[in-house]
Amino acid sequence: MSISTGAASALNPWSEEPSARSDRRKIRARIGGLHCSLCTGTIEKALGRLPGVDKVAVSLTHEQALVEYDPAVARPEELLQTLRDIGYTISDPRKLRAFEDEERDLVREARRFVVAVTLSVAAIPIIADPTVGWIGFLPALVCLSLGGFVFLVLRSSGPWTAIGAAGGLIAMALTLLYLNLQGYLTAAAPWLTGALALALVFGVGRHILYMAVQALRRGILNQHVLLEIGAFAGIAGGVIGLILHRPGYPTAAFFAVAVMVGTYHIFSEWLSLIVKTRSSQAVKRLLDLQPETARILRGTQELEVPIEEIRVGDLVRVRPGERIPGDGSVVSGHSGVDQSLVTGESIPIEKMEGDFVIGGSINATGTLVVKIAAIGEGSFLNQVIRHVEDARALKPGILHLVDRVLRVYTPAVLVIAALAVIGWLIGSWASTGTMDVERAVFAGLSVLVMGYPCAVGISAPLSIVRGAGQAAEQGILMRTGEAFQGFRLVQQIVLDKTGTLTEGRPVVREIEAVDVSEQELLAIAGAAESSSEHPLARPIVEAAFERGATPPDVESFEALPGKGVIARIGDREILVGSPRFLADRKVDLTRLRPRLEALEEAGRTVIGVARDGQAVGVVALGDTLRPDAVQAVAALRDAGLKTILVTGDNERAAQRVGREAGVDEVYAGVLPQDKANIVRELQTKARVAMVGDGINDAPALMQADIGIAMGCGTDIAIESADIIILSNRLDALPVAREISRRSYGKMVQNVTLAFLFNGMGIPLAATGLIHPIWAMVAMAVSVTAIFFNSLWETPRLFFDAIRSVGQPLVKAPAPQAT
Amino acid sequence: MKTTVFRIEGMNCDACANTIKNLLEKKPGVRMASVSFSERQARVLYDPQAVQEDRLVETIQKPGFRVVGREEAGKTAV
Question: Does A664 qualify as catalytic in the annotation?
């Protein structure tokens, strides 16, 4: 099962969506070129301004936009052209990114990183100056750490390549250092570093320049813009040095700083990509990638064909344990059908000739022949997929921490740089009567160079590496950045009933025996039911077996689908079935009546048993809470979350389950398609997390700020979720929230560290008295500090993260090959 | 249907018991099985027409456990 909406309707790079209002139309498009969470706001503003546009929703994680507009006023081509004008690309939302694409991006980014490191490692020894004291050795440390990363990056392409490359870098650095210390490079140093800076900014880092220009055109000051400001300030400082040619002016150092900031930026991009790719590959490993097939009947022949080749009107044979391939009606056979993952009904439903079955449900006991009425477009599953895709774009965004800080920080740096220039001009004029333009420009450029906190790019990915690693140890897959930054903000948690709070399968809950023992009652019921392949036979036999009873042998039986079974055991006639069936057969149920009604009211499925026309008892079946449900709900409430149960059950049964589990609020009688609407409604009050596993939960999982799927859930639920609980344990929910909270704390620490050193450097730089090499020192210190802060005690998490990406896709986690 | 209790030697832990349970439940004709490490026995509910008791003994012994006794549990009266 994959999320794709059937055949492409046209060549348009967008897809049409049904709109709630008849005079409005809705389109969805996939947007490329989103660089940061500030972009979503820009797109919403840019499109929202256009006449005829009602609603715009943009999702950063899924790179999609949903636009509702008045077709009388606006045209989709114009809307999308507006986006192209401000530098985004538009592509068809129906196409999924393939594994190979991700791999290619990763290889390209790794190659960029290696080239950038080479340039940096060349630049550092050239500007090394033994006369400045111990500070001169810090860049050497930077060199070493960068060399280490190159080794890590290249290790996947063979140990010799990696050793060779790292060795080559060291040799190059030592040679340049020797030449420098011998004084051979004094004249050439500015020109060499200048060439390196140009190669990095306009060569390897061309794409960053492009993105920065795009962002500027959109009026966004993001990381890329800040980087280019720093890099260009470095280059400008260097060029001025080359022109003025003053002794003691740090020309080469200015150029080298430009190289360094670029390298660190490329490094952080590579790291973010690793984090992103790793989680997307982890999700793919969970999905059932087997192509699904079905057996269709053509004349007297039975053919096994891929599920895509089934047409409406085909007859399909579905054996016990198989998934029903499409919506349709039963032509022959009868069987219990488990719809729990499709509709949330936990008790299998008996289906016989003429009954409607939903694609995706599991055929439990007998063989069915189904005439397909809908498959692909128009089927239940496709409606769900459509709802998921709508929710994808409507999902509320979250402004990432770094972007939030940058929104204030970047303008502040620019203002301080301007103040430094003005201050020096006025100050020098006031004290000496002439403006010291040279000093003023130097101070301004120093501020800009110092202003780029290059560790900021690695601060978020590194805290995610740590958090994801800790989560994985608890059987939790944190998939998106939202999972880390958003879960802690959630104040309401919606829990699906069937399969999430409960086991999702029927078990014997109550036994009421008259004149016989419980064991005997279960044995008789089990014997009769299992001979007829009744869907409830298994839980009854299970309960009998647990109590040490062995169902007796059945001599003959007759099954009346939808009603019950008449069986002959020994010389006695046994009736097992609905109370109504027993009453029809003139069995007196008076003594059991009050109990029976109480059980039915509680939402149980009740089965009556009679022997030789005498009622001997009833067996009540129902779904049970998971053993850890009560505790998990209590833990969530202790954490300050409002717990909400949603179910398709009737009010009374739902209230009972809600009380048992201890949730705050219950939504009963919810139709599968309405779950996402409930989440949307709750989102008007506060952020919402949704926990579920079924096909019908998928739109709500996508819509929620944080969607949480159980690892045993359906593919579509897993694909729609931000967090996946692999252990299938509910007590992982508070744990996941705690990890999210801690990771966010780490992220805040890291971002603080990233800005701290540069922040301290900026006022110093504004004095115009410090050497640009101090910018490099600030970088080296903050990057090192963040690495220590994130991975202290657990460096393994980082190495695992790098190593795990790009392993071939296998369903079971492969043994780590090293 | 029939329930037979097999006494087993050679189990070291609950994981062994789980292995035996999974092997038994995979056999056609076996309706249910519960294997206890602490009691060193397996209780199996099966259809004697579909699978013979000796086949079940073989299934248990194949990974190296030994069946040292068996007894049929009484059928529940109707």
Answer: no
Its ipTM equals: 0.89
| Local confidence band at A125 (pLDDT 50, 70, 90 cut-offs) | confident
Same domain, residue pair A359 and A488 = no
Listed residues A57, A81, A96: the one ending a domain: A96
Nearest to B1 among A542, A548, A553 (CB): A553
Task: Look at chain B and report how many structural domains it folds into.
Answer: 1
Nearest chain B residue to A546 by CA distance is: B34
CA distance A522 to chain B (A): 10
Q: For residue A717, give its domain range.
A: 478-502+626-734
Residue-wise over A393-431: b if at least 16 C-beta within 10 A, else e?
A: bbbebbebbbbebbeebbeebbebbeebbebbbeebeee
Taking the CA of residue B61 and the nearest CA in chain A, the distance in Å comes to: 23
Strand pairing category for A89-91 and A25-32: antiparallel
Lowest mean pLDDT among A121-125, A196-200, A799-803: A799-803
A214 and A224 in a single domain? The answer is yes
The residues, ordered by sequence, that sit 6+ positions from A9 with a Cβ below 8 Å of its Cβ are A15, A16
CB contact under 8 A, B1 and A527: yes
Please check whether residue A815 lies inside any domain of the structure: no
Neighbouring CB atoms inside 10 A of A68's CB total 18
Residues A612, A594 share a domain: yes
How far is the C-alpha of A562 from the C-alpha of A7, rounded, in Å?
39
Contact state of A541 with B78 under an 8 Å Cβ cutoff: no
Whether B76 sits inside 8 A of A570 (CB atoms) is no
Contact between A140 and A128 (Cβ < 8 Å): yes
Tokens of A375: 């498959």
Residues contacting A421, CB < 8 A, separation 6+:
A440, A441, A443, A444
